[in-house]
Design a protein that fits this description.
With 556 residues, the protein is α/β, with parallel strands linked by helices. The chain has 3 domains: 12-109 and 181-459, Glycosidases (TIM Barrel), CATH 3.20.20.80; 116-169, Oligo-1,6-glucosidase, Domain 2 (Oligo-1,6-glucosidase, domain 2, Alpha-Beta Complex), CATH 3.90.400.10; 464-547, Sandwich (Immunoglobulin-like). The chain is built from 16 helices and 22 strands. The protein has an 8-stranded parallel beta barrel. A 6-stranded antiparallel β-sheet has the order 15-16-17-22-19-20. The longest helix is centred in the middle third of the chain and has 17 residues, at 184-200. The structure holds beta-D-glucopyranose. The site of beta-D-glucopyranose has 10 residues, from loops.
């Protein structure tokens, strides 16, 4: 558990539990209405108590904030609303002292149009090195096979710039021009940015929108070999200069394509598993494990030193790009009946509202992602079951102030309510009087306490972070069951995806004569024999069983 970042451990990420946190939303230390780095530093004890051992910070660099900070105007600074570089160094130090690693964003595909590079580029002569920092064209016809990602906001990946007298390419908002990776100067500048943050002590970088770096005619401009070559160079560059650093790929792709971001262990150490996520919700709603089992079976093996990053929610819409048309309709119908919840190819809702605030369902989905192979990535506020606001623009409804208490502004800020960067959640079910950290810290049965227990179980159990996966297929397809095995300490996870009580018999012949121990309840179950092992499930009930004696050690 005391895995201090100063310790030489280049595989630290294998045992990580990552907490995703927008600095803006977490805690305001100076009463100006916006969360800041000092505020986050002040809340590290809370995060340590929760049990996580890595934080992933959303962009905190100078930015016009037209895309939550993913529109960067200066890669090497801190936006004044969050503090300054010394505040960031202080945060790093304080996090490391607590054994918490810090992962930041490397938004390498694009910049803000306010970035000095773009301002120079649009003014530079055609074919000059500065002009070449971005992708310009006389016509908007090139790369026509590339899809539009923010389809609710943009109708082309090209926009006209009067000053340049040319179109420029942008994969996201038109105010986020894509950098030109065919220009060696761009590739070098990005190395400089990486060196700047890693020298300071940052432990990992999330590579934002990484599939789109290179563009080639007649392709969809995603996952191109040139992009992978560059990532290999980036990894080699980092490994030659720094120890114990990690790259996390944000590649919203099918498993085969996302798998490519591990290379042969020489690109990223982690990559998000996007297709798994919506299938957890589909399986729950259909009361059928098949969507989850099928996607896991379709997921190719990965190099030993790599891991998937698994998640239920994040700061973006619940993306429905990696599902079929029929599955997308199903998801919209059941999880976003209110059209305000729909955006681009996805659903802008938080975990608790998505699951009708059902404690059982929230626990079950969390249990699954904390026990499947992969590194769990948890979104701030979901540990207390925060709600969302469908009336805020874009994805802001998922990024509202953290609810620390039932006090003024939910304990997030001492500013006047009108100065808050976003209004807090006020609806009757999720407002700060109903949902807040302080109350849940005092209540041993709260979701917060349960999450903290789950996180500790996961962190104390090498089988869950390192073990192999074997999926079981008991007769009722409502039961999702799998075994994690590692060095003789095996774990059985079994959940009832349905609201109906069920009995299932599991093939546990390999565990003949073992007494399973329920890790959550600390109770022994009847001895396993040669016959299929009977388990009785209540509505949405789950088991986490240690199949080794004594299993009690696992409890937190
Ligand atoms: C980030 C989004 C952002 C987009 C453009 C994504 O992948 O997660 O929040 O809007 O990149 O930078």
């Amino acid at each position: 558990m005391k895995d201090s970042p100063s310790k030489n451990n280049h595989l630290w990420y294998r045992d990580a539990v990552i907490y995703e946190v927008p600095v803006r939303s977490f805690c305001d230390s100076n009463g100006d209405g916006t969360g800041d780095l000092k505020g986050l530093t002040g809340k590290l004890d809370y995060l340590q108590e929760l049990g996580i051992n890595a934080i992933w910070l959303l962009p905190f660099y100078p930015s016009p904030m037209r895309d939550g900070g993913y529109d960067i105007a200066d890669y090497l600074g801190v936006d004044p609303q969050y503090g300054d570089l010394s505040d960031f160094k202080e945060l790093l130090k304080a996090a490391h002292e607590r054994g918490i690693r810090v992962i930041t964003e490397l938004v390498l595909n694009h910049t803000s149009d306010r970035h000095e590079w773009f301002q120079r580029s649009r003014r530079a002569k055609p074919d000059s090195p500065w002009r070449d920092f971005y992708i310009w064209s006389k016509t908007p016809e090139k790369y026509s096979k590339a899809r539009i990602i923010f389809k609710d906001f943009e109708n082309s990946n090209w926009s006209w710039d009067d000053l340049a007298g040319a179109y420029y390419w942008h994969r996201f908002y038109s105010h986020q021009p894509d950098l030109n990776y065919d220009n060696p100067l761009v590739r070098e500048e990005i190395f400089r940015v990486v060196d700047f943050w890693l020298e300071m002590g940052v432990d990992g970088l999330r590579l934002d929108a990484v599939p789109y770096l290179f563009k080639r005619e007649e392709t969809d401009c995603e996952n191109l070999p040139e992009t992978h070559d560059y990532l290999k160079e980036l990894r080699a560059h980092i490994d030659s200069r720094f120890e114990n650093r990690m790259l996390l790929a944000e590649a919203n792709q099918w498993p085969e394509d996302a798998r490519a971001y591990f290379g042969s262990g020489d690109e990223c150490q982690l990559a998000f598993h996007f297709p798994l996520m919506p299938r957890l919700y589909i399986a729950l709603q259909r009361e059928d494990r098949s969507p989850v089992v099928e996607i896991l079976e379709r997921t190719p093996p990965i190099p030993d030193n790599c891991r998937w990053a698994v998640f239920l929610r994040n700061h973006d819409e619940l993306t429905l790009e990696m599902v079929t048309e029929e599955e997308r309709k199903f998801m919209y119908q059941h999880y976003a009946p209110d059209p305000r919840a729909r955006i681009n190819f996805g659903i802008r809702r938080r975990l608790a509202p998505l699951l009708n605030n059902s404690r059982r369902k929230i626990e079950m989905l969390n249990l699954i992602i904390f026990t499947l192979p992969g590194i769990p990535v948890h979104y701030y506020g979901d540990e207390i079951g925060m709600g969302d606001n469908p009336d805020l623009p874009d994805r802001d409804g998922l990024r509202t102030p953290m609810q620390w208490s039932s006090g003024i502004n939910g304990g997030f800020s001492s500013s006047a309510a009108a100065r808050l960067y976003l209004p807090p959640i006020t609806d009757s079910e999720f407002n700060c009087e109903r949902v807040n950290v302080l109350d849940q810290e005092r209540d041993p049965r709260s979701l917060l306490k349960w999450m903290s227990r789950l996180i500790r179980i996961r962190r104390n159990c090498r089988t869950l972070s390192r073990g192999t996966l074997r999926i079981l297929t008991p007769a009722p397809f409502e039961i999702l069951a799998f075994l994690r095995c590692w060095q003789g300490e095996d774990i059985l996870v079994a959940v009832n995806l349905s609201p109906t009580p069920l009995k299932a018999k599991l093939d546990l012949r390999d565990y003949n004569k073992i007494i399973p121990v329920d890790v959550f309840r600390g109770k022994k179950l009847p001895l396993i024999g040669e016959d299929p092992y009977p388990l009785t499930f209540g509505p949405h009930e789950y088991y986490l069983l240690s199949l080794r004696e004594p299993g009690e050690e696992l409890g937190a």
